[in-house]
## 1
Amino acid sequence: LEVIRGVEPRVADAIGAELTDQRASLKLIASENYASPAVLLTMGNWLSDKYAEGTVGRRFYAGCRNVDTVEALAAEHARELFGARHAYVQPHSGIDANLVAFWSVLARRVEVPALAEAGAGHVNDLSEADWGRLRRALGNQRMLGMSLDAGGHLTHGFRPNISGKMFEQRSYGTDPATGLLDYDAVAAAAREFRPLVLIAGYSAYPRLVNFRMMREIADEVGATLMVDMAHFAGLVAGKVLTGDFDPVPHAAIVTTTTHKSLRGPRGGMVLCDDSLAEQVDRGCPMVLGGPLPHVMAAKAVALAEARRPEFRDYAQRVVDNARALAEGLRSRGGRLVTGGTDNHLVLLDVSGYGLSGRQAEAALLEAGIVTNRNAVPQDPNGAWYTSGVRMGTPALTTRGFGAAEMDEVADLTHTVLSRTTPGTTPSGAASKARHVLADGVAEEIRSRSADLLGRHPLYPGVDLG
Ligand code: PLP
């Protein structure tokens, strides 16, 4: 930090303050984690200075031998860890990985017949007229994905996102009675809509998805099954999700982030079968800017960590802790979407406490519990205020929390929410944004959390001076 302080002290201060904040709060954001010192240090070096458009051994720039080494290593670890035929480790984020996947499915679809007609050997040889035909063919493709309020992600075909502009979209939801995925309803929607891409994967669904059944549905209607495992990649890597629940053997293409349950650097990745590998490798420069060599190096380190036996133990503890958290909330009267969890996250419907998701999120933050508000299925409060709070265990499990401690976290959460009331606007009108936490609760919760957090120091040995 001293080196940074010499140039821009405010940045050094913000970095230091972030560590202080993370050390002092209960981080329950389901998409966050704490990367290892090895992963963090691998990101801060001169590999960042290199341009390396292209792929390993086929670059548009000279002098890429060391970037080739780290990219090849990251891809090899990814293939071995997930049992994938092909891995592409360049995407800068999960959204970028999804864009690469969309591009490759679309390009494979339209390029081949158009090329055959044009008698050309490569997409670069297409004439303007060929491109016109391609554009028209690309313009009316369809995607079927999980709805946002059932737990799907914005990139799964929703209007405000580029995916909703590239594809005509329809979504499948969950059974209103149980909150669970209804495979018969997904199959019926697929038969009627006949999508090019059937997308499975979620940001806020607390149960498992049977990818074998999703593949059967895709095959029946001639769709490509794409799985976005951004949230649960760590559980796949740690062999907690196997058989029908491991997407890799069932999907033609799998995308992920590397920074959530996988516990790597911030970034994305694509795994695919041989039929898509060539298109996927054209991700940069067709869809992505130059790769981030320092981040690919950190992906290699994180994936090497995930191949160790300790990571399997970690992944199992993430799920055990989520169950303990769910049970702790449920037994204290909390209303959980689907009644519980099978993965790393819990979706708490806070309308039972008379609060909006926004009010609950703010009250918890005031007490040092960091979560995020999230829509619940058929949410009456919409996507901004919401009626839910999403909580996940990957970060606290990395810190060393166990099941008994998660029960205590459930108690802290319940205490805050049951002692929070909705606030009013300055003119006295009801507000979905403002909250009032009873006097003394924030202090009480912070002191109880400090005891828990003190048992599991974060980045021990890192001294801010
Ligand atoms: N896909 C899913 C399922 C996600 O939950 C997220 C992020 O929350 C993303 C993609 C996007 O990842 P990123 O923020 O790295 O672009």
Note: The pocket of pyridoxal-5'-phosphate is lined by residues 31, 93-95, 153, 155, 201, 203, 228, 230-231, 257, 268 (CB under 6 Å).
## 2
Amino acid sequence: GKYRVISTKPMPGTRWINLLIEQDCRVEICTQKKTILSVEDIIALIGDKCDGVIGQLTEDWGDTLFSALSKAGGKAFSNMAVGYNNVDVNAATKYGVAVGNTPGVLTETTAELAASLSLAAARRIVEADEFMRAGLYDGWLPHLFVGNLLKGQTVGVIGAGRIGSAYARMMVEGFKMNLIYYDLYQSTRLEKFVTGMYGSLSYGQFLKASGEQPVTWKRASSMEEVLREADVISLHPILDKTTYHLVNKDSLAVMKKEAILVNCSRGPVIDEVALVEHLKQNPMFRVGLDVFEDEPYMKPGLSEMKNAIVVPHIASASKWTREGMATLAALNVLGKVKGYPVWSDPNRVDLFLDENSPPPA
Ligand code: GLV
Ligand code: GLV
């Protein structure tokens, strides 16, 4: 191959590798045992000549790495993730390296995990499973693992992009929940669904016409409004300076005592120490977490909380999605290395599959 492309991890499927090989690339895959590669590890991988890198969200892609990649002749970097808080896009631009991410293919998979965590928290599935396995079940009881009925309750979505909108739709349509969402931008994608999917009827009118309790929806004017009113709240913002510790001691205090909070975005969106304290003080408050402030660690006390469900950052982990992410990441790098016109704007991320999302500010 004429071009040297590195993947810092083995990735699912073979399509991504074949795409690169068929187009003059020599693909090198790092098989180091350690899970999180350091900046030094990656500099060693890049070496003297490297045209493009596919990297992971666990890696710190800042000035040092983009400088090294640029010196090696590299033109492209793709995160195998939709989130790119681990990538300093300005540094990449400074060194002439284009950056890509992998939106679109993980929308439904991620929303489905958020829905799973919402249901698991509402119905106390994990606690109940532990109870069974511990041999504690000695007969049906009216009070055993009583949880929340979602139907008729309000789901709150903070960040109504692709994933937040897909999740909202699942919860509204699937479980007949009322919706309140907060986003800096009006979500046309979400409002189209709630206002007019059923011919000329809104989903609420459609339910009413079928003799069901209609659902309601609104865009909140503040995040606090969502925190105050919703029974289940799912977080779907990007992580940046403005969303760091978006959920903190004060925002937790505003939420209902029996609310459910779900996070499949990025850990630092929640002040995890404040959350542990809140879980201790409010045993009826439940949380479903896919992401953590200092991955792979959890803040002290979190793992002992019965009212917390914790899973290891697996929201995008379906076979179809992970192969799709690998393929998109490879296309991102290939497109730039081969000079395809899609890369004409080096600042543009969110390149594929979603022309409607605004470029990052
Ligand atoms: C996963 O967390 C992603 O951003 O794709
Ligand atoms: C954000 O990137 C989203 O897909 O919602």
Note: The pocket of glyoxylic acid (ligand 1) is lined by residues 57, 81-83, 106, 316 (CB under 6 Å).
